[in-house]
Design a protein that fits this description.
- With 314 residues, the chain is an alpha/beta fold.
- The chain has one domain (2-313): Alpha/Beta hydrolase fold, catalytic domain (Rossmann fold, 3-Layer(aba) Sandwich), CATH 3.40.50.
- The protein is built from 9 helices and 10 strands.
- The strands form 2 sheets. An 8-stranded mixed β-sheet has the order 1-2-4-3-5-6-9-10, with helices on both faces. A two-stranded antiparallel ribbon has the order 7-8.
- A hairpin with a 4-residue loop joins strand 7 and strand 8 (211-214).
- It is globular.
Length: 314
């Protein structure tokens, strides 16, 4: 929630802090529909730089698994756009209406949509990055580590494509809900505190009663929380991952990023953890880290692609 408030707060000052300059070098396409569910449209805004480098990155517009078009802030895409990246600011189905597994499904759909329409957006479908903070960081990791292969039999050709991304950068993300803050501390049975509780209020449809009923079995709840923990999906095939976290974060413990970093390093995945001394959860100071995100994508999207093209010519 604090991250979402940051998104909204900096929106108020974006004109004074360089929004006009960004607008002059960027074309913004609003409300691009990437999917539909329950009669509603899922949308993203696309920021296309005048001097595009042919690579795309996804900005997960999410704080506490809340998401809204009002939280799409040009300040949070500016550093990437100025490096030449086409930025896709994705709004997902928001809690309290939707739970985390449903939100992850939305993000999978968004990546597939971008990949399917890569030619239209003038981006490379095989070199996509993703970034976000807090819940947006969690979802970034879920796509990076747990992105899904496509279903070759899907009726919609978009759903036949992979939702994996090739580089991740994130701020203070939850990574392991079954070891949250300390080993064995399990966040099950609606254990997330308000205003986040609805995001883990898991339920299922009972066709006989024609009602959604809550899931109460602890084994099932534990299995769901494990499935939506990014660390569960860590493997040697995970993409290069940058984590930035404050050591005074009282909402998402630094331990969460440390667990992820240690796991990725043990698997031989290029990764880096930057610890901000004295920093809590969110804050305007983290805006400066978007330049580090751009550096990361330069290294693992732009440079890697240039090397691959050079190798192919030999």
């Amino acid at each position: 929630m604090r991250w979402l408030r940051l998104l909204l707060a900096v929106a108020l000052g974006w004109l004074a802090l360089g929004g006009v300059a960004l607008a002059q070098e960027t074309a913004r396409t609003q409300d691009v529909i990437y999917g539909r569910k329950h009669g509603l449209a899922l949308t993203m805004d696309v920021f296309t730089p005048t001097k595009a480098n042919g690579k795309g990155v996804i900005f997960v517009v999410s704080g506490g698994w809340f998401s809204s078009t009002e939280a799409i802030n040009p300040l949070l895409v500016g550093p990437l756009v100025k490096r030449g990246y086409t930025v896709f600011a994705v709004v997902h189905g928001s809690q309290p209406k939707y739970t985390v597994p449903e939100i992850v499904d939305d993000m999978n759909r968004a990546v597939r949509f971008i990949r399917f329409h890569a030619k239209k957006f003038h981006v490379d479908p095989n070199h996509l990055g993703i970034y976000g903070g807090s819940a947006g960081g969690h979802l970034s990791l879920m796509l990076g580590l747990g992105g899904k292969t496509g279903d070759p039999k899907a009726k919609d050709p978009i759903d036949r494509l992979s939702s994996r991304v090739q580089a991740v950068a994130c701020l203070f993300p939850p990574t392991d809900f079954l070891n949250f803050g300390k080993p064995g501390n399990e966040l099950i049975d609606r254990a997330l505190q308000p205003p986040f509780t609805a995001a883990v209020d898991f339920h299922e449809f009972d066709s006989k009663k024609a009602l959604y009923i809550p899931i109460k079995d602890h084994d099932r709840l534990r299995a769901i929380m494990k499935e939506i923990s990014p660390i569960t999906h860590a493997s040697a095939e995970a993409p290069p991952t940058l984590l930035i976290h404050g050591d005074k974060d009282n909402l998402v413990p630094l331990q969460q990023s440390q667990l992820m970093y240690d796991k990725l390093k043990s698997l031989g995945v290029p990764s880096e953890l930057i610890v901000r001394k004295g920093a809590g959860h969110g804050g305007l100071a983290f805006l400066k880290d978007l330049d580090l995100f751009a550096d990361w994508f330069d290294r693992y999207l732009l440079k890697k692609m240039v090397e691959a093209e050079a190798s192919g010519k030999k």
